[in-house]
């Protein structure tokens, strides 16, 4: 699953939340958040945890091609 890195970074900036804070809130590692922010893919559950931690629907963070699959 691929989270759109620009959307993720923009949402984090909008909420003024850092990598460590998001990792703690989402229950994933800091390395995972950093990897996703750099454009790496992640599992469905990881994407779901990140979206929930940010309080947004997961489809709002996904790249366009990924949204069509969901």
Number of helices: 6
CATH class type: Mainly Alpha
Q: What CATH architecture would you give?
A: Orthogonal Bundle
| Class from helix and strand fractions | mainly alpha
Unreliable runs, pLDDT <50, ≥5 residues? none
Distance between the termini: 10 Å
User: What general form does the structure show?
Assistant: globular
* Percent range of helical residues: 55-70%
CATH third-tier fold name:
434 Repressor (Amino-terminal Domain)
Largest sheet: none
Give the rounded overall mean pLDDT: 94
Strand content: under 5%
- Give the topology string: H per helix, E per strand: HHHHHH
**What's the gyration radius in Å?**
11 Å
Please characterize this protein's 3D structure:
67% of the residues lie in helices and 0% in strands. By secondary structure, the chain is mostly helical. It has one domain: lambda repressor-like DNA-binding domains (434 Repressor (Amino-terminal Domain), Orthogonal Bundle). The longest helix has 11 residues, at 44-54. The model has no long low-confidence stretch (mean pLDDT 94).
Q: What brief labels describe this structure?
A:
single chain; about 70 residues; 6 helices
Structure summarized in a few sentences:
This protein is mainly α. It has 6 helices and no strands. The model has no long low-confidence stretch (mean pLDDT 94).
Topology:
Blueprint: H1 5-14, H2 19-26, H3 30-37, H4 44-54, H5 58-61, H6 64-69
